[in-house]
Amino acid sequence: MGREVALTVLRRHLSRIQGRVQQEFEAHHLSGLAAARWLAALMDGVARGAHAWTLASVMAEAPEGQPMPASPERPFSDRSYPSPAERAAVPRFAQPLAEAGMTPPSERPFSLAATGGYGRGVMAPSSDMDLLFLSDHPLGPRGRRAVEAMLYLLWDLGLKVGHATRTITECVDDARGDATIQTALVDARHLAGDPAIFVRFQDAFARARKVWGFGQFLSAKRAERKARHKRYGDSPYLVEPHLKEGRGGLRDMQTMYWFARWAFAAQRMTDLVGPDAPGGGLLTDQEARQFRRCWDFLWTVRFHLHYVTGRAEERLTFDLQPVVGARMGYTRHGSQDGVERFMKHLFLTAREVVRLCRLLEPAIERAALGLPAVQAAPDAALTAAGIAVADGKLLFAPDRKVGEDPAIMLRLLIAARDRGLQLHPLAQRSMIRHARDAQRLRGDPEANALFLDLLTGKDSARSMRMLNSFAFLPRFLPEWARIVGLMQFDTYHVYTVEEHTLHAVGVLDSMERGELGEIAPVASELIGQIQSKRALHVAMLLHDIAKGRGGDHSELGAGMAQEICPRLGLTPEETETVSWLVLHHLLISQTAFKRDIDDPKTIMDLAEVVQSPERLRLLLVVTVADMRAVGPKVWNGWKATLLRELYWRVAEVLAGGLSVPERDVRVARSRAAAAAMLEGRPKAEVDSFLALGYPGYWLSFDPETHARHAAMIHEAEVDAAPLTVRTRVQESRGVTEVTVWCSDHPGLFSRIAGALAVAGASIVDARIHTMTNGMALDTFWVQDASGGAFDAPHRLARLAVLIEQALSGRLRLEAEIQKVRREPARLRAVTVPPRVVVDNHASTNHTVVEVNGRDRPGLLHDVTDAITEQGLQISSAHITTYGVRAVDVFYVKDVFGLKIENERKLAQLRGALLEALAPVVPVPA
């Protein structure tokens, strides 16, 4: 048979088998694992067929194209697909080309083996086919031509083929000291060619493994795993997980299979169950079934990923999550969307993988390398508590039954923390197996004291993380179980709810150790002054405990805290404090980022809620920890500055400082301070500047800024400049201040905002002031796309030019904004329903308008343009972005300088803003 004919036959067959597997899988007749095994079995037929043609065409002595004897077997092209019973057994039914009338000659120069994942007998739709051409001796010219011909045939079929050509000796030599090759070979299985060669390889490799020992393989794979987790995410709860390489993913499970195969030649996890299994049974039957369920679920998700994307995609990004979840049958249930239910199942599976690996790995190590030498604890107190030492790590004494005294699990963690020692893997294994006994400790006074000791002591985040990973925490605190693996389908939260909470507890640890003194100096100082330490740490643990239950999680969480805290042994006063902190844990951040903190009413309203300096300290520390735990890009210098200024202003009021009636006094002080900064300037110039500002202007800036404004205004008047733009990088705040001085007119804010969007600057705050002479002094604080100061000199120069062009009408804003509306495809699946909230109570002199919508370049231009079209004046703007959600707040007045209280006018305003918030089609990134 000629090459083109063979290629046509193989291509047709490959298309049929791939289509049939996809059809059966998508019809839910096959799980992911069954489909992976079936596909690998079918690909065996393709590999054997290609091998048979290669031997027939390249190695045969007869001229190429001479007919070969027909096989009595049916050709695979006529072979029917398996029955349900056959499919359940996942048979390797596909016949090679040798059975399609192309029997190869008797000469077999090499053995063909499958390695890697393909060698394990599982294959994803877009996975590589890893092949090993194995021989006793180096291949001659004909053998090398045969390998080349077979590879080109497979490549021409569109297959991705990883390959190696080695002798048995080369396999052993190359594998020595190389864990990657060792891993590939430990999964090797024979496909075609001389089986005796493969048997000799297996014997040689088994002898070599015995010489090398299990310890070197174990160490190498652990180091590889550590590097892999560092690269793909050391948490199993990242909201865009890497299904294959991430923590709790397929590769972690494969590592356990490799350990079991290397140490015991086990082919499946059930080989480790039962008294006759290695080590007397390293797994229970239930644990082996859990391995199988996790393996099957992850393979099912992987198959969907490959089919949806049409490529070997392993990262479950935001745009793919709803699609895969829907294909797997997850729909909305109660308050949870289908995609959130699907991701919760995925995260719970990842957590189970981590738990099972921690359970099995030390057992394999112990069985393969021998029992550790258990020694008496270094002091009598530990010995009396039933704690021993092995390999310098703590574990339970051999005579201590954890199930009879579950509190010993907490005592062991405290002992390890206080002595700076690690838990032995066997101790972790025991805690995992006895985690369910934690439910017997609920309400137990001793257990409560131990738990609170761990929560409030040093390295509390590490202790809570271990309790969570061992599944102890959800059993001890049943409310916690509801947030395990719970994700919020947005781009703001990087972690699941419980992982975010554990990060927040870790931030408290860092503040208490003084590690955040430069990043959050006020909170780091205040945490040492807090008297209610237990309440602080418990509130941090519970602040998001009610998420996923529907309704306001702060209000629901406050009620739950009233029930949980007494059960943990907190006093009524501590319970009230925890409940109050949970209820108001968003209050400071919402005030700082959504309200004008220069407005005295804002400060007085907040002080009225807080009422005491201790609660203010608690609230600021909780706010900082909560924000820093959301993700690495959420916290920045600008937000830190706003929180710090808000704290000191409220603290001043609580200490008996300024109140609302003293506004005029504050204005007078500000004007006097500005005059002092301008000392030495001509009196007429100073008086002219002091006469320009309304009270809101004098309360919005410090004396240094007033002095800079005076110099800029004087220079503009001398030069008769119609427009002046000044930029100032504020590194400490992580922002760039952009000040614009020009004649005021409707739509000014909107045009400047549009120009800034075209320049690539993101506005984080703004102050708009119309002076007594009709000129506008508008100040914007902007950042670049990464959340840092917008400081590149060429970009600052372009920014000033764009503002001038926008105000003169020479810049077609809408067209230019459309050019910068680029967005990664993975983020388009995240929707943000538009919302407009109007508040006439938050400010004495202004109507406060809050808009929520999906962020996009130019959004602020669109929204402010809509406000201007309604005949309103914007006094200040407060811009906040949470992932792709924009929350912008505007203080506005009508043309007469009054609040907007007419309901018809407010309804028109809401309608115009909702229209501005409507999604636009972005340009693909």
Which structural class matches the secondary elements?
A: alpha+beta
Number of strands: 17
| Outline | globular
Q: Identify the CATH class of the largest domain.
A: Alpha Beta
Rounded average pLDDT: 87
The side-by-side strand order for the widest beta sheet comes to 8-9-11-10-15-16-14-13
Tell me the domain tally: 5
Cα separation of the termini: 49 Å
Computed over alpha carbons, the radius of gyration is 34 Å
**What proportion of the residues is helical, as a percent range?**
40-55%
State the CATH architecture of the largest domain: 2-Layer Sandwich
Q: What is the CATH third-level topology name of the largest domain?
A: Beta Polymerase, domain 2
Q: Tally the helices.
A: 37
Low-confidence stretches: 61-107
CATH superfamily of the largest domain: Beta Polymerase, domain 2
Approximate strand percentage: 5-15%
Q: Sheet with the most strands?
A: 8 strands, antiparallel
Overview of this protein structure:
This is Bifunctional uridylyltransferase/uridylyl-removing enzyme. Its cofactor is Mg(2+). Residues 497-619 form the HD domain. One of its GO terms (molecular function) is phosphoric diester hydrolase activity. Its EC number is 2.7.7.59, 3.1.4.-. Helix 33 runs antiparallel to helix 36. Strand 2, helix 5 (141-156) and strand 3 form a beta-alpha-beta unit. The chain folds into five domains: 3-210, Beta Polymerase, domain 2, CATH 3.30.460.10; 213-371, Up-down Bundle (Four Helix Bundle (Hemerythrin (Met), subunit A)), CATH 1.20.120; 373-399 and 412-444 and 453-476, no CATH class; 498-658, no CATH class; 722-924, ACT domain (Alpha-Beta Plaits). The protein starts with a helix and ends with a strand. The protein is globular. The relative contact order is 0.05. 52% of the residues lie in helices and 11% in strands. The chain is built from 37 helices and 17 strands. Strands 8-9-11-10-15-16-14-13 form an eight-stranded antiparallel β-sheet, sandwiched between helices. Strands 3-2-1-4 form a four-stranded mixed β-sheet, with helices on both faces. A three-stranded antiparallel β-sheet has the order 5-6-7. With 925 residues, the chain is of the alpha+beta class.
